[in-house]
Amino acid sequence: MPWWVPVALLVAVAIGLVLIYNSFVTWLNRVRNGWAQIDVQLKRRHDLIPNLVEVCRAYMTYERETLESLIRLRQEALRTQDTKKRQDQETQVSQHLRQLFALAENYPQLKASENLLALQEELASTENKIAFARQFYNDCVMEYNTRITQFPGNLVAWLFGFRPQPFFQIELASERAVPEVRL
Amino acid sequence: MYAQIASNYRWSVFLVLLMILLLGAVGYFVGGFFFGIPPDWAAVGAIVFALVWFLISYYGGKRLILWSSGAQKIAKEDHATLFNVVEEMSIAAGLPMPEIYVIADTAPNAFATGRHPGEAAIAVTAGLLTKLNRDELQGVIAHEMAHIKNHDIKLAMLLAVMVGTITLICDVAWRLLRAGVRAGRRGRGNALFALVAILFALLAPLFASLIRLAVSRRREFLADASAALLTRYPEGLASALEKIDADPEPLEVANRATQHLYIVNPLMKGARQEGGWYEKLFSTHPPTSERVARLRGMVGVSLPAERRASFLPGLPLKEERVSRPVGIPFPLLARLGLPAASVGTISLDRPAPVVAPEAREEPVEPTSLSCPRCREGLRKVSVKGRHLFPCPECGGILVSRQDLKALAQYDHRVLIRLDERFPNWVGYGWALISKKICPRCRKPLAETQFPEFGPAAVDWCAQCDLLWFDDTELSVMAKANASRFKTGEQREGVRL
């Protein structure tokens, strides 16, 4: 066997290692970017809530409790550091927002208010953005997790300590449930 | 997807090399034989020209295409919903936010262009916004976002500018040639010109088929599928494609060079796709019916209705809200220079009024006042020396309190007739943005109740004592208070 065969093999392995390692880093960054995007949109929703409460307060005389609990939830979620707990609180904020918009249907003047309509577009879009950011994050996590568990990627992952990332779970029971068919 | 990106890259390189070689050859023959330049130098000159041309199409192609389509860049303030939909899709695709342009054309269509995802642009027509609802718009934007993500836009842009220029020259040459033949002029210079023109005319179909080959139908299917994956709602795009395809209006800004950019080929919509062999051979897009069938065949992708857009997810869906077209806010409509009546496809709440033939039509004069609601110029209608200021776009009516009181006492049916004479042409999609202001003093109007005009609140400017009635509000008010007001039969003896 000529001397250069093992050298060539070593070089090939090294190049493969570098390529696989780099692809892991790229995908891990996409996962982190996806997570950051979710956070940005959640923050945006928190910024919109005070405006919403302000608009609703002028018309809603009987729903003080709903408004106050929404404000309280927002403040709690802003203070929370723990990711798991934060997810629960954000889910509750979503539920309260829905409840508020459902209640707004009972107030014709409020429902027709241009401020509320504009806010509704912004909040609906933010909810969409949160959902799409979550979708993008989960897609990235799936791709990344597949790459680090497939052969020979799993060897490189083990060597450099790449760990699987958690999926963003849907916490709402109503979102997980099979939608009922209305006839 | 990565295979698609690599294929796009290969095609772009192939296209550029082919163009350079072809131009070199044309320079070699035409320059060499007809103009007496040494052929080698002519070829070099042509290749240099082709290189410069490539650089222009590569770096300026986006601006060139957008400019030639008459697209105008918009910001979030101009159209919040469109901006939000694009942002949602850019998040779903994990791409940077593209620039958004609107084309002042009432035919619904859209395209994306740019060099790479970092500096892409999405252009939609005004007609798209007034004819599609939010879910459908989202489908269209997702399709364009998929083209951006798959790097289809660079190749499509190069094709539009480089091949487009050649087809343009061919078209012009062909028309000139035919005009020359018809005029019956013959001569040495003309014979030479005719030869070149025939050469170009022969090349034109070649380039058309090149476009067809390069922007293959597979790309459109792939973008449709990726769009369904982004929105998780293929029905939105399917229904949008059907609407765009069925729309009879032609897209004036589209031509043979840019036809392949659009989501549905604007030159071969509807029945024309199933037409003759020529249409089939040179079609840049697969038949829309086939695209729709494939989208509808995607099972298990769709989100439940409660989870998707339109308005706050998780709320019970209201049919009228979901199916409402997105619409265009008035300031943007004015900037695009479109008369509101031309995009009057926003659903009207009631049919156009039938004016009784015996009803005398009072003359309508223009005024310098602008509508409190939509900023259109108000008109002036005089009845018995009293003045009403109707808006020809949104159908609202401005009137001073004294004049209204006098007219109501004179004959309340005049008010109903005038209100019905000026219908709402634009729906209420834009009402999200506009805030009603007094056209005279520019202060916001306040909702106030007036006992003499019934219990309903009316927009009122306290300073100028002007009342504003939105479309139909005036006739509703007049009908509700009919017993209080005098009618025409009783009007004798009432002095104005």
Structure described in brief:
The complex is a heterodimer of chains A (183) and B (496). Chain A is mainly α.
Describe this structure in words.
The complex is a heterodimer of chains A (183) and B (496). In chain A, 80% of the residues lie in helices and 0% in strands. Chain A has 183 residues and is an all-alpha fold. In chain A, 24% of the residues are buried. Chain B starts with a helix and ends in a 16-residue tail after the last helix. In chain B, strand 7 (386-390) and strand 8 (397-400) form a beta hairpin. Chain B has a seven-stranded antiparallel sheet, with helices on one face. Chain B has 16 helices and eleven strands. Chains A and B meet through helix 1, helix 3 and helix 5 of A and helix 3 of B.
> Averaging pLDDT over every residue of chain B, what do you get?
75
Output the number of helix runs of chain B: 16
Low-confidence stretches of chain A: 172-183
Structural classification of chain A: mainly alpha
Strand % of chain A is under 5%
Helix content of chain A: over 70%
Number of strands of chain B: 11
Radius of gyration of chain A: 24 Å
Question: Topology of this structure?
Answer:
The complex is a heterodimer of chains A (183) and B (496).
Chain A: H1 4-59, H2 64-79, H3 83-104, H4 108-112, H5 114-149, H6 153-160, H7 173-176
Chain B: H1 2-34, H2 39-68, E1 71-73, H3 80-93, E2 99-103, E3 110-113, E4 121-125, H4 126-131, H5 134-149, H6 152-183, H7 188-214, H8 217-231, H9 234-246, H10 277-281, H11 288-296, H12 319-322, H13 330-336, E5 364-370, E6 377-383, E7 386-390, E8 397-400, H14 401-410, H15 412-421, E9 446-449, E10 457-461, E11 466-469, H16 473-480
Parallel strand pairs in B: 2-4
Antiparallel strand pairs in B: 1-2, 3-4, 5-6, 6-7, 7-8, 8-11, 9-10, 10-11
Helix pairs in contact in B: 1-2, 1-6, 2-6, 3-5, 5-8, 5-9, 6-7, 9-11, 14-15, 15-16
